[in-house]
Design goal:
This protein is α/β, with parallel strands linked by helices and about 260 residues long. It contains eleven helices and ten strands. Helix 1 runs parallel beside helix 3, helix 5 crosses helix 6 and helix 9 packs antiparallel against helix 10. About 35% of the residues are buried. Bound molecules: acetoacetyl-coenzyme A. Acetoacetyl-coenzyme A binds next to helix 2, strand 6 and helix 4.
């Protein structure tokens, strides 16, 4: 599949999806969101892919936000639909069974920060910059920023960033828990791919059940979360991976998971 505003590379069960509008710092317009929706749907269904990495084309931006030129003259109802589309696509990424890692290689502002936040976790290049600059444009975040930032880094720090539109560097983003680590720009993709490979070496049914249980647990109280976990734990015992993983441990050999 070829896209106008995306690039997709697949190697060794890892897909790398580039948002590819470098001249506009990879800003998300409606066409790009529609392509992203199609690509995420296809990746979710593709049995040859186990881990997805999302990054930005070029060396300057992950995604510099929703496309301001596209949004400038939208009516209220059109803007509402645009937000709903972005939210829908980002929710597809968040709830996709396979793990998704954001490799943040530059500006991750507005919709870019929101795209990074719907991924399972984020690794940043040292030149990455994060923020929700929307109030400086007289609008608020529309692709989940007011919801995910508060959940991810806590209400106090999230509200400070939302109200001030301050842009923070990679080290500060790491300090507040927005990203897991900061890498030299030339090492970012290598580190993210090595992390993806460590995930790939494990039982993929179990990895996906971890994601589902963690995500569902975040939406509910801890008692319900424990039930979700126990159910998913039980389900693991219906898999070949559980038998292989435990046999390999007992037999003191490396496990050979099949993802079944
Ligand atoms: N939308 C549309 N075009 C954008 C863009 C965006 N979000 N961000 C950058 N661009 C374009 C610029 O217009 C410019 O295009 P031209 O060359 O045709 O003039 C090109 O990308 C390069 O950008 P700059 O010349 O501005 O590059 P810079 O290095 O001087 O500055 C920047 C980089 C600080 C990221 C600056 O571009 C900027 O502030 N961008 C906007 C960031 C922003 O406000 N994002 C939030 C958007 S609102 C949103 O996302 C709402 C939502 O939640 C749904």
């Amino acid at each position: 599949m070829t896209y106008e505003n995306l690039l997709l590379e697949t190697e060794d069960r890892i897909a790398t999806l580039y948002i590819n509008r470098p001249k506009a710092l990879n800003a998300l317009n409606q066409d790009t969101l529609l392509e992203l929706k199609e690509a995420i749907g296809a990746i979710a269904q593709d049995d040859s892919i186990d881990v997805l990495i999302i990054t930005g084309a070029g060396d300057k931006a992950f995604v510099a936000g929703a496309d301001i030129a596209y949004m400038q003259n939208l009516s209220a109802m059109e803007a509402r639909s645009f937000a709903a589309l972005g939210q829908q696509v980002f929710m597809m990424i968040e709830t996709m069974e396979k793990p998704v890692i954001a490799a943040v290689n530059g500006f991750a502002l507005g919709g870019g920060c929101e795209l990074a936040m719907c991924c399972d976790f984020r690794v940043a290049s040292s030149n990455a910059k994060f923020g929700q600059p929307e109030v400086g444009l007289g609008i608020i975040p529309g692709f989940g920023g007011t919801q995910r930032l508060t959940r991810l880094i806590g209400a106090g720090m999230a509200k400070q960033l939302l109200y001030t539109a301050d842009v923070i560097g990679a080290d500060e983003a790491c300090r507040v828990g927005l990203v897991n680590s900061v890498q030299a720009p030339e090492e970012l993709m290598g580190v993210v791919k090595a992390t993806a490979k460590r995930i790939l070496a494990k039982g993929q049914v179990a990895v996906r059940l971890c994601k589902a249980a963690a995500n569902e647990g975040l939406q509910t109280d801890i008692n319900r979360g424990m039930t979700i976990e126990a159910d998913a734990f039980g389900l693991c015992f219906a898999t070949a991976d559980q038998r292989e993983g435990m046999s390999a441990f007992i037999e003191k050999r490396k496990s050979n998971f099949t993802g079944r």
